[in-house]
Amino acid sequence: MMNYKTEMNNASQFINQQGSTWNAINPEYIARMRLQNRFKTGLDIANYTAKIMREDMQSYDENSDNYTQSLGCWHGFIGQQKMISIKKHFTTTKGTYLYLSGWMVAAMRSEFGPLPDQSMHEKTSVPMLIEELYTFLKQADARELNHLFNELETAQSSGDQVAERAVQKQIDEFETHVVPIIADIDAGFGNEEATYLLAKKMIEAGACCIQIENQVSDAKQCGHQDGKVTVPHEDFLAKINAVRYAFMELGVEDGIIVARTDSLGAGLTQKIPVSQYEGDLAEQYNAYIDGEKVNSLSDINSGDMVLSRGGEIIKPTRLANGLVRFKPNTGEDRVVLDCITSLQHGADLLWIETETPNIEQIAGMVNRIREVVPNAKLVYNNSPSFNWTLNFRQQVFDTWEKEGKDTSAYQRSSLMAVNYDGTELAKEADMRIQNFQKDASKHAGIFHHLITLPTYHTAALSTDNLAKEYFGVRAMLAYVENVQRQEIRQSLASVKHQDMSGSNIGDDHKEYFSGDQALKASGENNTMSQFS
């Protein structure tokens, strides 16, 4: 923690050593600028936030109520406004992170335009967004501290020592908006060397936590789409090693790796690994390969491959593109093996991509993992790809049926219908949704809850509502009533958009640099004063 007076005294001593040529430099202004920019590099941020995550992980191990949360952000301004809001409403950023979604980078940040989540976007877009997010978070620090410095000046000029001490305390105990980012590296954008190089760029931009998945890099699919193809464990572990080497090379020894498995929804593998000895990972992986038993050489056709497994010869089931099928109904077993293997080889956290948000299903897999790794913890995707309303209404419906409760008033396949909204079943489902994070953290080992692309949907919804009314009969009233008036009523800092974009900070800097000659933007003709 940086102390205002200490920084000012240190600056003053150094300036005095320079002689009269530095007389124009004010040590108090230097102290302010240093406090407004406490993180000089992305590696400073990565080290700072990695320690926060490590402490949070330990706190969760001690008490599952201490889970953490984040929202996916596709632009620095969105991340900034999220953290400003959290500080305003909850007074602290503790337990809150940002999530950088590969899906949103593909859909919203690629020079190619909107793309599907298939690792087709520029890999450099990912570290660039990390840097952008932290630039905006640091600017939020500078803006809030700038206001405190102005309050300090007001207290000093009025001789109010009580107010001066109070503001001084706020400055010295200031909590930064800079929080950990869990950053999605997809499947590594190539081989293990490509993964290492990209991981370094992400860490240098500030990432303390990198999430990597076990899909094939050049056939990567969104976790909630069909056609997913996984790689053998050896290939995935090589990429986990690559990320760890990147962290260690750059001095971020507390860096966190999230190993994501898509095996629950992946029915295909890229290749059959070569087993070196009985019971190794390759043999365990190959045990799940689907195939037809070979009884004689006549069963083998041109182009077929064969696999010796468990004392018999099988002909693996292959698609026309050469990909190999897994046995049906082996997804959960493969997930458990993936997770145990990843944790035993350097991963810190797990991510299990599921098809629905079902605590019982998640807990079943986590409990099996914890039989081998007792402190296994999950990062879980509270995905917008789930129809939360329908899923939980159907879960309640199924529970009631098992309990023998009368469900004749409900049609299971139509529970999304609006006419069910006020029913007892709908209320019970909403309660389960509200408690999902708490209950899943307690019963299913979920340390971190994130929503991958919430701000994609909120931007679409708010824009649709504004456009519908602004271009309709309500015209300007649509903006005034639903946006600006609400910003004022709810004390959103963004209503003063000039201040939010750094206008006041710039004015103060001009005064630092030019003194009374400074041409400032915050004069009496600045319309922002209407929102005072």
UniProtKB/TrEMBL annotation:
InterPro entries: ICL/PEPM (IPR039556), Isocitrate_lyase (IPR006254), Pyrv/PenolPyrv_kinase-like_dom (IPR015813), Pyrv_kinase-like_dom_sf (IPR040442). One of its GO terms (molecular function) is isocitrate lyase activity. CDD domains: ICL_PEPM (cd00377). Keywords: Lyase, Metal-binding. It catalyses: D-threo-isocitrate = glyoxylate + succinate. NCBIfam families: PRK06498.1. PANTHER family: BIFUNCTIONAL GLYOXYLATE CYCLE PROTEIN, ISOCITRATE LYASE/MALATE SYNTHASE. This is Isocitrate lyase. It comes from Psychromonas aquatilis.
